[in-house]
Design goal:
Distance between the termini: 40 Å
Shape: elongated
Oligomer: single chain
Structural class: alpha+beta
Strand order of the largest sheet: 1-2
Low-confidence stretches: none
Mean pLDDT: 75
Largest sheet: 2 strands, parallel
Number of strands: 2
Helix content: 25-40%
Number of helices: 2
Order of helices and strands: HEHE
Length: 70
């Protein structure tokens, strides 16, 4: 099992590093407060083509989701 940590301030840095990694599975976990600008359709298409999966985790979002329990 190979694990790689990448601190990227631009989305393309993370994609570039992962697309070149010699790993059987490639996965990105995005931890956010919900404020970042969404990725472009072109970037998402690159992740799909490279078979890189993505998970998101919201930490202290600025506004509650509709229907969320108090």
């Amino acid at each position: 099992l190979q694990r790689m940590r990448i601190a990227a301030f631009r989305e393309s840095n993370m994609y570039d590093a992962l697309s070149k990694a010699a790993a059987g599975q490639k996965h990105v976990i995005i931890i956010s407060d919900g404020d970042p600008q969404p990725p472009t359709d072109a970037l998402l298409a690159k992740y799909i083509a490279a078979k890189i999966s993505i998970s998101t985790v919201a930490v202290f979002p600025h506004s509650p989701f509709k229907g969320a329990a108090d």
